[in-house]
Amino acid sequence: MSESSGGETLLFLTDEQLRQGIEAVFFAYQSFTADPDRILATMAYGRAHHRAIHFINRAPGTTVNNLLAILCVTKQSLNRVLRSLVEDELVEARVGKVDKRERHLYLTEKGEALERKLSDAQRARMRSAYRAAGPQAVAGFRTVLEAMMDPEMRRRYLSLKESGV
Amino acid sequence: MSESSGGETLLFLTDEQLRQGIEAVFFAYQSFTADPDRILATMAYGRAHHRAIHFINRAPGTTVNNLLAILCVTKQSLNRVLRSLVEDELVEARVGKVDKRERHLYLTEKGEALERKLSDAQRARMRSAYRAAGPQAVAGFRTVLEAMMDPEMRRRYLSLKESGV
DNA sequence: AGTTTAAGTCAGTCTTGTTGACATTCCAAG
DNA sequence: CTTGGAATGTCAACAAGACTGACTTAAACT
């Protein structure tokens, strides 16, 4: 509260301040995932399905390999999730035209409906947090998050960001 | 970049902006946990052990029930983790003096050493992100994170924050 | 033709979450 | 004082979702 918009002091880099930042991330992430988790629990899906659906929606036609890089999981792990999504007709995997080895992933209408349901819940929380915090805080929020990312992750984040305008 | 320190516009509340916020949290959290995960992988421990160690260090003498509320898992789940930590002599569980049902949890020296190792790694990342982003961004970062938390979580976060000065 | 790459599969393990049953301790009402 | 209920913690079994390792198939590259 006291160090809020202060000058250029470096006092906020004490171990205690850093610890508080770590805990803030922990607690916020817990709430952040709680809304979609509640929805997913009512079906036979989990957080892994949500992640796949989110990024397929974000980059329709993306390949399996691409998704693996973003999610940072093994293909075996992703495959289990993808298989059930394809079986349940939430995701369509089309064979690549130029390279037939590749599978391009798309959400079906059913998949889009679930995506909307999940992201509506998550966006509602972000929206109210953003509104409560104000534009300046939001800018700072995103600056710090970007600075926290590993370079490789930041690269992927930024390229998604640009593709979405 | 363009919406950085801008005025009081509400343009940043478009779905696209909110989506970017969601993705930023996702990618940042991935990097955020990567450092301790790497250390833990070399021993027989996981993220759950880290969380327990972190909060026991933060509030020495805390009870199991207390920890459950913070971590939002079942007591059975926490108990497995706690048992292995006690067996390995990283944590000491003392029977409560006034209420013998309670176990008060403390880190041993060995436990403190691991806590330091883990949090050093995590703090290093936070420190460099904070430094790169600057004090104003950090203030905004924390404001938004607090606003994202469920009221109950925020209450717990704030009480830890105060206890640590 | 031989190698590499993309994707998928099968089997087995580990962590970490879950529920259900149970033991111990405390406390308060009869 | 005792007894029954609530709180605290433990044990056992199971499921999700991550992992590794070995392997197949098909297509592309050289």
SSE topology sketch:
The structure is a homodimer of 165-residue chains.
Chain A: H1 15-41, H2 47-58, E1 62-63, H3 64-71, H4 75-87, E2 91-95, E3 103-107, H5 109-133, H6 135-148, H7 151-163
Antiparallel strand pairs in A: 1-3, 2-3
Chain B binds a DNA duplex (30 and 30 nucleotides) through helix 2 and helix 4.
Helix share bin of chain A: 55-70%
Can you identify the CATH class of one domain in chain A? Mainly Alpha
Quickly give the CATH architecture of one domain in chain A. Answer: Orthogonal Bundle
* Strand adjacency order, main sheet of chain A: 1-3-2
Q: So what's the oligomer here?
A: homodimer
Tally of alpha and pi helices of chain A: 7
Q: Let me know the average pLDDT of chain A.
A: 91
> What's the CATH H-level homologous superfamily of one domain in chain A?
Winged helix-like DNA-binding domain superfamily/Winged helix DNA-binding domain
- C-alpha Rg of chain A (nearest Å): 19 Å
Most extensive chain interface and residues per partner:
A-B, 68 and 69 residues
Sketch the topology of chain A as an H/E string, one letter per element: HHEHHEEHHH
**First and last CA, distance of chain A:** 35 Å
In the CATH scheme, what's the topology name of one domain in chain A? Arc Repressor Mutant, subunit A
- Report the major sheet of chain A: 3 strands, antiparallel
Shape of chain A: globular
Strand content of chain A: 5-15%
What is the count of β-strands of chain A? 3
Structural class of chain A: mainly alpha
Task: Briefly say what this structure is.
Two copies of one chain form a homodimer. Chain A is mainly alpha-helical and 165 residues long.
